Amino acid sequence: MISATEANESTKYFTHEWSITIPTRPRLKYVHVTPKISSKMLELTMDPKNHPYFEHGRNKVWDEAAMEDFTKIFADGYRDAKTKYDRLAFLVELDSEAIGFVNLRCLPPAGPNNIGLLFTEKARGKGLGKFTMQFILQLARNIGIENLEAGTMKVNQPMRKLMESLKIPEREENKEDPARGVIVAEILYTIPEAVSWDDIDMIVEFGPEAFA
């Protein structure tokens, strides 16, 4: 995602606890998902209502073994990311309640860096998705993450309209998750380096280094 030769303050986004607040949106906060709080991400992932356009997500059975697998896979990925800088997840909080998350992950073998978003049912239709996408692209640029891509299913009209409103063109192309053997996107977006909106004012607060 970023090279080890670029190791500087930016790498703390992968290794430390942090949160980001937005002065113009004081109810909103973005919080780095570390293994200590990965259960919040798991809770959001497990709710079938949070996967209205993705059949595999709706139908997955979350027994104890599946939950343990999620926790282990997340911890292993987090541990690797502390030196490879190849994945980054953060919660979206509104009034201190987790209402979604973002997952940035470098797809093997060498990219692109895929953007994944998930929001709860009650968080949709409030402009949070569009603002969060703008936030993601700026944060990625700030910390040196390039070659960004996003994807969705054809039926996900809200996501497609969101990307259209940001003037990011779509193309039809299937994307398969090799680990699960399922199609995870039918529409892809290559994110341009330049964007057409004003920078978002961010206040970043770093905490201690977090371990798996």
TrEMBL record:
<protein>
    <recommendedName>
        <fullName>N-acetyltransferase domain-containing protein</fullName>
    </recommendedName>
</protein>
<dbReference type="Pfam" id="PF13302">
    <property type="entry name" value="Acetyltransf_3"/>
</dbReference>
<feature type="domain" description="N-acetyltransferase">
    <location>
        <begin position="41"/>
        <end position="207"/>
    </location>
</feature>
<dbReference type="InterPro" id="IPR016181">
    <property type="entry name" value="Acyl_CoA_acyltransferase"/>
</dbReference>
<dbReference type="InterPro" id="IPR000182">
    <property type="entry name" value="GNAT_dom"/>
</dbReference>
<dbReference type="GO" id="GO:0016747">
    <property type="term" value="F:acyltransferase activity, transferring groups other than amino-acyl groups"/>
</dbReference>
